[in-house]
Amino acid sequence: MKRPTLEVVAARAGVSKSSVSRVINGETTVAPQIRDVVMRAVHELGYVPNGAARNLVTRRTDTLAVVVSDPPQGVVSDDPLFSAVVRAVSRELETAGKRLVLMLAESDQSRTRVEQHIAGGHVDGVLLVALHGADPLPAALARQGLPVVSFNRTSAPNVPYVALDNAGGAALAVRHLLERGRRRIATITGPLELYEARERLDGYRDTLRDTGRRSIVALGDFTRASGAAAMRQLLEDDPDLDAVFAANDLMAIGALRTLHQAGRRVPEDVAVVGFDDIEAASYTTPALTSVRSPMADQATAAVHLLLGLIDGGPTSPVIMPNELVVRESS
Amino acid sequence: MKRPTLEVVAARAGVSKSSVSRVINGETTVAPQIRDVVMRAVHELGYVPNGAARNLVTRRTDTLAVVVSDPPQGVVSDDPLFSAVVRAVSRELETAGKRLVLMLAESDQSRTRVEQHIAGGHVDGVLLVALHGADPLPAALARQGLPVVSFNRTSAPNVPYVALDNAGGAALAVRHLLERGRRRIATITGPLELYEARERLDGYRDTLRDTGRRSIVALGDFTRASGAAAMRQLLEDDPDLDAVFAANDLMAIGALRTLHQAGRRVPEDVAVVGFDDIEAASYTTPALTSVRSPMADQATAAVHLLLGLIDGGPTSPVIMPNELVVRESS
DNA sequence: TCGCCTCCGGGGAGCGTTTTCTCGCGGCCC
DNA sequence: GGGCCGCGAGAAAACGCTCCCCGGAGGCGA
């Protein structure tokens, strides 16, 4: 089951390797007649260029890595948005004629493997997803001199990113609750090592502070379970609260469950607003009000930024806008 | 920013390229003293072997492709289990020292690209996920002479697979509903081009037939929206039904929503059982009874099967068992 | 008609590895 | 003590492709 090589095709077509190569790569300086005979030979033999050999000389791989830096619990990769991001990235690369290799970096060991892989020249660029603020990976990768784009704000200086307006989104949510006449508005945060979580918390705090109200904060980690637990905590600490802003939808779903178990009506007793507007948000009871994260758009933007970077383009960060989707829970 | 090559390492260590290569590849026929001096040079220079060059001569890439054959709507890749599968596969390959390239085949065009990529020698094997029964891809890939494992049963003859006991799982669900005293048990199916969907329907039908009861079937496509729509249909067609078996949890969630809107109590009026036991199943109101699909285990098994295949192992299909997780909805 | 310029095709040198083959040296057995 | 065997290291040939460089042919202008 040996695949034919350039040389075999050349022999069959009765031309030189060079000509075949030119035809394959779509160069225009080749006579139509030669082009045709080469194409025929290619089809007859089912020739497909060997990737390794091509990479070796061109130093391009047409492959981009998506590196997901994530603790073993899988905070990020468990997120429903993960699929959406992967899909959007995949499609975008598809149209650009690039390939996608996905690497999860869960441990130091796998982080090293990622770096080795990058250093091994297997990819032309890296899209980093959802890292902790202090993650050493972005800086390490950027040091390799390879184009890197982060899917979040990051502490590494020279790494361009595409981020949500997290603080703005949180402000949207809180102002909405205030307009609904809510007085005691609590929040459930994400893991504060993540920029997104911190920014959403900041947006919540700043908005409340502007109106002279007090913050009521419980810590979560972006999982349903943590949302449920944080909600229990909040009810215990502050039984009079009348609204909750959860820093993502999964935690909001957990909170809804706790509220239901505690006999609180939503939204009559307690209003709930989430963040991300994942599909499940429309299917909770009651349906969840949420700040929409345009994840697919963000992914597309990130890919474009990265592709631009590879072609030597500019590196300006991009901030995505967001909007509030009001449903029954608030 | 040029990376050092084998040759400069050899020069630095004062040995031949061959020796460096041997050290890098962990061959034992090299004197400890040489080994040390090479290792030192490697570390000092931060040498990492060039992948393309290595692939070119070894004809191995240490890379496996996960090909997701999926219509553009993203039936599969939208599924929460998709993340779980990707995570499990990624981890398993990590420990095996392999890399993962993810390819979504949504259109004929991208299908061709996938085939080209495979033919280009970029990967050592392929793991096919969630294809339609009539998908031409498995057969096409198998024809390339490359190890292929399917994540579902497939129509291609020579492609080994790892599958769930879908019919058995459906039977579990239906028998459970019968034991609860339900008489009119409906089902919402997945898209019947998928083997899984057909098998789950068969399991439902056969179990009911054994007890002499009538089947009540509505078609869905594994999405929440289709579950909600199918449930509306069912209520209209057969207002007296007292139980529903949905062929996956997403559709069950959609059905719950419709039942809630229609004022039916779950489980008092209508019992609901889903399939897959995704995490969201624990967080619905009421919590959803579901047939657990051991997706992570299935993914692990599939990877093992594929790795075994690459090393020339046997190709026996694997069937995963499943179990019923009873919660509040039934 | 001749010469020069242009354009197109071929030859061949690399790209960075692995791997085979060869060679030298030392030890062991007779 | 000599010959043979085996082990470890180096030289060099691939692997399949791209791309530079050169040569030949054809066209056009003088």
Describe the structure in your own words.
- The structure is a homodimer of 330-residue chains.
- Helices cover 45% and strands 16% of the residues of chain A.
- By secondary structure, chain A is an alpha/beta fold.
- Chain A has a 6-stranded mixed beta sheet with strand order 7-6-8-9-10-12, sandwiched between helices. A 4-stranded parallel beta sheet of chain A has the order 2-1-3-4, sandwiched between helices.
- In chain A, strand 1 (63-69), helix 5 (80-96) and strand 2 (99-105) form a beta-alpha-beta unit.
- In chain A, helix 1 (6-13) packs across helix 3, helix 8 packs parallel to helix 9 and helix 10 (224-237) crosses helix 11 (249-261).
- The mean pLDDT of chain A is 90.
- At the A-B interface, helix 4, helix 5, strand 2, helix 6 and helix 11 of A face helix 4, helix 5, strand 2, helix 6 and helix 11 of B.
- Chain A binds a DNA duplex (30 and 30 nucleotides) through residues 5-7, 15-19, 21-22, 24-25, 29-31, 34, 49-50, 52-59.
- Chains A, B: Keywords: DNA-binding, Transcription, Transcription regulation.
- Chains A, B: This is LacI family DNA-binding transcriptional regulator.
- Chains A, B: Residues 4-58 form the HTH lacI-type domain.
- Chains A, B: GO terms for molecular function: DNA binding.
